[in-house]
Amino acid sequence: GKPEKLGTVIALAGKGEYGVIEVVIGVDAAGTIVGAYIQRSRERVTKALQADAFLTQFIGKTKANDFTVGADVQPTSPDAEAASRVVVSVIKKMLVCYDVLTKGGEQ
């Protein structure tokens, strides 16, 4: 039969202190994050950004969730707070865009 859509992969970049941070997320059909990946980064804290302890915090989140660094999302290193804010901002933008493109931005 007709293949069922399992989800979507979305990529977007944000401006870090040392260059572009490219972030990739996978979302299911409901817009819930099922995985996150740092595709490219020149930040000094790239290893902290790529750590499972940081990236797994996004799994299960949707556009409706809060993404405040230090409260809802913890940086894996004190030095990674600024770069973590960039990643959080990029992921939130991707979720909002996904929602608008798939549902017209309706709640």
Extract low-pLDDT stretches.
Answer: none
The largest β sheet comes out as: 3 strands, antiparallel
Shape: elongated
* Secondary structure: helix percent: 25-40%
Helix-strand string: EEEHHH
Q: State the distance separating the first and last CA atoms.
A: 31 Å
Number of helices: 3
Describe the fold and architecture.
By secondary structure, the protein is α+β, with helices and mostly antiparallel strands. The chain has helices at about 45-50, 50-55, 80-105, and strands at about 5-15, 20-30, 35-40. A hairpin with a 4-residue loop joins strand 1 and strand 2.
Descriptors:
107 residues, alpha+beta, 3-stranded antiparallel β-sheet
Short précis:
The protein has 107 residues and is α+β, with helices and mostly antiparallel strands.
List the helices and strands and how they pair.
Elements (H helix, E strand, L loop, with lengths): L6 E9 L4 E9 L4 E8 L5 H5 L1 H4 L25 H23 L4
Antiparallel strand pairs: 1-2, 2-3
